[in-house]
Amino acid sequence: MRILVIGSGGREHALAWRLKQNGHELFSAPGNPGMAREGTVVASTDYLSAALELRPDLTVVGPEAPLVAGVVDEFRASGLKIVGPDRVNAQLEASKTYSKRFMNEAGIPTARWAEVDTFEDAKKAVRTFTLPAVIKADGLAAGKGVIIAHSYSEAEAAIESLGPKLVIEEFLTGEEVSFIALCDGRSVLPFEPTQDHKAVHDNDEGPNTGGMGAYCDSRILTARESALVMDTIMRPAVERTGFTGFLYAGLMMTAEGPKTLEFNVRLGDPETQALMHRMDCDFGEVLLACAESRLDTVAFAWRPEPSVAVVLAADGYPAKVRTGDEIHGIDAAEAKGATVYQAGTKIDGGGKLVTAGGRVLAVTASAPMLASSISNAYAAAAEIHFDGMHYRTDIGRKGLRTFERPSQAGY
């Protein structure tokens, strides 16, 4: 098939890489240098015009912004097959208040919350919550619009930085899980469970980022837990909305059962990098079945080996980022068996690959054991260098402590 991937980040490079592995002809808009290795890059954000010229058999949307802007509605109106939610359902991610109201109306388990739209009301409302409290920006924030406040002074500072239109939530305790499913309006086909690492530093310290790494391992959830998520969260959401595309539920597995922290309306980043590395089926055919409302005729297949994606970030990330630093060592990293997905990269005027964003690369590896997957990813990451590069050194280690004995892990 001729497939167009919309987007330019690491998630989109992983999608393009997976689809190329399946033998499909790839186009990307606006793409990045890594995606140029997988197929033809169209340097345009006029996605409909590009598609009308290319005439792909299928289009898949990576980032949330085009979805919120209604790209799926435009493509469908032009008779083009596309995977993603329409503009109305994209509000599940575009507005935290919309999403929380929806969860309450649909009976989907979530944290207690309050909606505020002035600084004064926010500062009053936060004092009705036990600390720590969670402060969330209402709109799109590239994964960085959440602050966990451990004191009321921290909460007020968070309100000043994110407000005034906010959602304030109770803090939930448990294990956090990214649960993503592909939906065609009726059927819900779940991916393997993943766990994202949001904080910039080891041990979940420091400010939230768009994601500093992820791992994918079937053991993250038991079969019973996965079934409970499907029955209480995913299927009710799709049945109520007719949702199409990728529905991402950020979960907290609490003592009372799974609760929904948030909905996203696209694949996660960097969860996608870990997922695509483990997938063992023709993803293009599954996506086409989704676009044609026949997901019940296909299934995912997965390699049993866990996968680990380690994000290499630019100097200053997640605050003000320095760009233009030359990147070295990608070929050496891939010679060690890893796959390096590009995100914040560009080719400069001298033909060099340089940094162009906060999250620059995702070094991704698999192995029969999670411990070996972690070791392989970090051994490959050690081959890469650019000035100011930083990354977490504990991606997947929590799973290691849960699933594998220290003697197996080699730590």
| Count, helices | 16
- Can you count the beta strands? 22
Sheet-strand content, in percent, reads 25-35%
Going by helix content, strand content and strand pairing, the class is alpha+beta
Describe the structure.
Strand 2 (25-30), helix 2 and strand 3 form a beta-alpha-beta unit. The chain has helices at residues 10-21, 33-36, 47-54, 64-68, 71-77, 91-94, 96-106, 119-126, 152-162, 223-241, 271-278, 283-291, 330-335, 370-381, 397-403, 406-409, and strands spanning 2-7, 25-30, 40-41, 58-61, 82-83, 113-116, 133-137, 146-149, 166-170, 175-184, 188-190, 194-196, 199-201, 205-208, 213-216, 244-254, 257-264, 307-313, 339-342, 345-347, 353-355, 359-366. It is built from 16 helices and 22 strands. Helices cover 33% and strands 27% of the residues. The chain is α+β, with helices and mostly antiparallel strands and 411 residues long. The chain has a five-stranded parallel β-sheet with strand order 3-2-1-4-5, with helices on both faces. Helix 1 packs parallel to helix 11 (271-278).
